[in-house]
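Annex B. Sample input.
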Amino acid sequence: MKIIDTIIKFKSDVMPPKNSYIEAKIRQYGIDPIRWAIIEINENELTLSVAGIKI
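Annex B, continued. Sample output.
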């Protein structure tokens, strides 16, 4: 098990997005999220700080 801390960006068609949508997007990056936070919003692009288990 390897825990990583990273920044990811993705676009959302619906604002504000639901938690389940955000966590599904994080999993698409190969990370099982432990914690995450939105750190920037630019129109419909979200920037997240994510810590999780690399899958």
